[in-house]
Design brief:
about 270 residues; alpha/beta; single chain; TIM Barrel; 10 strands
Length: about 270
């Protein structure tokens, strides 16, 4: 199994894109013809994936949109992951699950995502400390994206609080801790930094040029693509969800999703010239 870091860069160079498509299926937004399917969440995402797989760097299925339906939703989540791995093994999977708990609990999450589901990467919350992340890294090829400065307005409530002299904020401390962890586990840990905070993104990139950034907030949340990629550079994954998968709510939703992906990739070409 190829390590996520190598797989991501190989894929990005192949498709000339940093674009990660977030798979966030909301039943109310899915076309009626798909809602009638036995596994509508899976079928919706499958159509999106089949249409766009030649042009994207990664997929990020968000478990929240599946957990809503209990065991049947989890089944569809697992169907989607299995479909991606079987049919498009060269495309990295970032499971957006935001796990983070005491080490004894974290190891159980790790067994599920990296042991059973064999995803390439997951998002994690570092709030309980680096020892809560280490069980995930016991899996040889696992990769973690730790929440650092998220794209939502509420990130300012805690993540931007000053905690040390020199205007050092919580997100600075998180990034530094993840950087140290990445030294112990080379190319195995990155951070989530929102495109909605370009100034902070620029400072973090300057300080951590070699760390992989997962960047949400572009598209529906208002982040500017060209500003984002010019700051973050090639060592990044830029995620867009709603503006792609809901570009149309008609039967042509998959074709419209591909159209949007190609538009985004056209803007990204400046990085690959």
């Amino acid at each position: 199994m190829m390590k996520f870091y190598d797989k991501l860069h190989s894929r990005s160079n192949k498709v000339k894109s940093l674009l990660c498509v977030g798979l966030d299926p909301e039943i109310e937004k899915i076309p009626l013809v798909i809602q009638k399917e036995q596994n509508p969440l899976f079928e919706f995402c499958k159509h999106i994936v089949d249409a766009t797989h030649t042009d994207v760097a990664a997929y990020k299925p968000n478990i929240a949109f599946f957990e809503r339906y209990g065991s049947s939703g989890i089944k569809e989540f697992e169907l989607l992951l299995e479909y991606l791995k079987k049919n498009y093994p060269g495309v990295p999977i970032i499971a957006d699950v935001k796990r983070g708990d005491l080490a004894n609990t974290a190891k159980e999450y790790a067994k599920y995502y990296f042991g059973s589901l064999c995803v390439d990467s997951i998002t994690v919350s570092p709030y309980m400390g680096c020892d809560s992340l280490e069980p995930f890294l016991e899996y040889e090829n696992s990769f973690l994206f730790a929440l650092c400065l998220t794209s939502n307005k509420g990130a300012e409530d805690f993540q931007k609080l000053v905690v040390k002299e020199g205007n050092i904020r919580v997100y600075d401390e998180v990034a530094s801790a993840v950087y140290r962890l990445n030294k112990d586990y080379p190319d195995r840990v990155g951070i989530v930094v929102g495109a909605t905070y370009p100034g902070e993104l620029k400072l973090l990139r300057k300080k951590f040029p070699d760390m992989v950034f997962l960047i949400p907030g572009f598209g529906a949340q208002g982040g500017e693509l060209l500003d984002t990629i010019s700051i973050s550079g090639l060592n990044s994954v830029v995620n867009s969800s709603r503006s792609i998968i809901y570009h149309s709510n008609q039967d042509d939703f998959a074709e419209k999703a591909l159209q949007k992906v190609k538009e985004i990739n056209q803007e990204m070409q400046v990085l690959f010239r």
